[in-house]
Amino acid sequence: MPVLVIYNPVSGDRSAKALFDDHVLPLLAKHNVTPDKVVATESSGHVGNIVADFLLSSDHAQPISIVLGSGDGTLHELINVLNNTPSPKPFPRIHLALVPCGTANALYAALFPPSPQEDPVEYKLKSVKAFLSDDHDSVPLNLAVNVLSPPHVRPPATAPPKQVSISAVVTSTSLHASILHDSEALRASDPTIERFKTAAYQNITRWYYASVKLFPRKGPEVVEVYDPAERAFVPHENSAEDEPIVDLIGPFSYFLSTVNVDRLEPAFRITPRAKETLEESSPAALDLIMIRPMRDPSYTMDSEEARKAFAEKVGAVLGAAYQDGAHINLRYAEDGSITTEGDGPTVVEYIRCGGWEWEPDDIDERAHLVCADGDILTIPTNGKATCTAATPMNDQTGFALYT
Length: 403
Ligand SMILES: Nc1ncnc2c1ncn2[C@@H]1O[C@H](COP(=O)(O)OP(=O)(O)OP(=O)(O)O)[C@@H](O)[C@H]1O
Fold this sequence. Notes:
Layout: E1 3-7, H1 16-30, E2 37-40, H2 46-57, E3 64-70, H3 72-83, E4 94-100, H4 106-111, H5 120-124, H6 126-132, E5 138-140, E6 143-149, E7 163-167, E8 170-173, H7 174-186, H8 194-203, E9 210-215, E10 224-227, E11 232-235, E12 246-249, E13 254-258, E14 286-291, H9 304-321, E15 331-332, E16 338-339, E17 349-353, E18 355-360, E19 369-372, E20 375-378, E21 384-390, E22 399-402
Helix pairs in contact: 2-3, 7-8
């Protein structure tokens, strides 16, 4: 199988080149693997062009392996550039050995949950070692297809084009999209994950107005919601097989779905049960976390004061996500305080679905931001965003990960 080695020298703390020179390339050589190419990316989007050129330049009908040293953003670019590259026939399956060199490395941390005792370099080589071993697994990568559409116009031919972006990790609006939007501006001064916290403080009092539809996934055919009492997903009370779509209104504080991952950073387990959906037989799913302030019994209306006070609760929820995903068990007591006891409304709504639609209120500018694996997109005025879970069509195409 052809092997490409690609790393992004500016990912995370910029240590990819040293890691590849000192550890990854010698490890490949030790196993008599001679890569067809070893390339450092030179700019945004370059990773996709390297792979597309390689696949198009020869008749590579057979699968290839890529040892990819980067964060989640570079993988996102690879998927999207290939998706937008015209090709006479579908690209073959691409098997990835990931080397986590980025800031958050959500996909890698989800596949290989870190443990404190582990040697940091050994930890980063796990997927490469799986690739080099005889008895490796290669798990297919599910995808979330995001489409941002303008409003319908007549005749349809005059409508501006839709924007499509494919996520392998996360699609979000609301607080998370605002954080990613603002943290990009902080990247130069702070290359660590601390910049996400700084941006979180800047945005935590915002609420976002939108109407939302949730669609079921194949298999259950209903939208499901996590029930902490049952410790399981159960059918959503407003979803039945004959009328499965759930309609919701805002305001929203947090709205984020993941695919493939149970965490966005090694310790931030925002969708802690998501790995259940990666089993071979499980239909593609999005695990969605929503926080809607109006579920809190202490508020009946939006005000500056309510937003400030609610920010503390959002902080507590996100803090609990760092405690092994404990936020999914939090409820409101009658006075609005947060508890793990009783049967009050859950603070977060943890949903499992096949897709969602987000239609922002036209005057709420920040509600138009969508984050797809760190890329920030803007929904056109009066338009909407949809996010749909997808699995590879067959085992000859798409992406798979060495584990
Ligand atoms: N040589 C380069 N110079 C500048 N930017 C580059 C170069 N090569 C790739 N990039 C860009 O670097 C960006 C960040 O990459 P990546 O996602 O790998 O790291 P990260 O953002 O630190 O990690 P994570 O996504 O896990 O938080 C990508 O969007 C990519 O377009």
